[in-house]
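User: Some background: our group keeps a shared notebook of sequences we're curious about, and every so often someone picks one and asks for a predicted structure to add to the entry. Today it's my turn. The entry only has the sequence so far, pasted here. Could you supply the structure so I can complete it?
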Amino acid sequence: MLPLISNEQIRIFDSLGLHKGQMDDNVALVTGSARGIGKYTARALAALGARVVIADISPEGEQVAQQIKDDGGQAQFVQTDVGDARAVEHLLATAQAQFGPVDILVNNAARARLGKVLEQPVSSWHADFTTNLLGPLMLIQGVVPGVIERQLGVVLSLISLEGMPFMGLYCANKMALRSMMLTLGKEIPPSTGVSVLSVMPGAVNTPLLQDMIQSFADFWASTSRTCGPRCRTTRATTAWCPWNTPLRRWPGSVPTHASSTASSWTATCR
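Assistant: Of course. Here's the predicted structure to add to the notebook entry:
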């Protein structure tokens, strides 16, 4: 079993003035915490002493909760579809019964699918907006009034870039979430002691990112358009690579490597 946090993480905590036990009196709820960013956010909060509610649609969240418990922390897994109003009500009720009112809310759960704006059906837009925007909204409405009353707490939502090709649906969701968080921050008086934050973590090697890279690889390989001179492919096909779009429109000028585990297709663009 891995330790709850590594020596490197302890060093980072120390540099930020954080220490084990600092959040002993806090309850944290992290959505999308069965893997990736959410998983390690939950583990970090547990390492600081918070009682953590692991909320995820995947049953893998139970393993994360058990790992935290095995390492001496406190955690409870609640299998949840954050786009389902009844599931959100059940999640908040379970958190309250198990640990007490939530002090720290991390909206990390998200759905991401690849496609062109002109081709994605309206039903997909409804489904993804329900998960990526209305889910955080329902949780915020369920948690924030109590946080304001206690005059202490944090509400944090993860956002992303805007205007990425073939990710219009995901980007629109995240920009709407960013706007909602900005509005919420202005509506809650600073005197309450409540922090409202949006975090754009950038590209992190998570299962979600790997799934997206796989989807990109499959999509590019099926196109007939040719990539620009900055992209070098190792597959005998002509594939259009959005990473070759100019910097002003796409963050592809940053050295990036994409690979497909299901095929031999790889590309590196600069």
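Suggested note for the entry: The CA atoms of residues 228 and 244 lie 6 Å apart. Strands lie at 27-31, 51-56, 74-79, 104-107, 153-158, 194-199, 231-233, 256-259, 266-269.
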